[in-house]
Amino acid sequence: MNFFNAKTTWSNAEFIIIKLCIASAYILIGSYFHDFFKDYYLPLFIIFGITVIWFVFLWLKKMTNRA
Prior knowledge:
The protein has about 70 residues and is mainly alpha-helical. Helices cover about 75% and strands about 0% of the residues.
């Protein structure tokens, strides 16, 4: 059985646990390496902005194709 080919479905409520886990890891990493990341705020904000726009575009495209 190939682990990466397994298909699963998740409800929105089940994603809350995954999102909380990832968010808490980001907060821990960010607080521990604060001095390291302070020099990279601008590139990180640029990457964040591009990926947010890209994600919203893909999400809207998927929602319009579904209807």
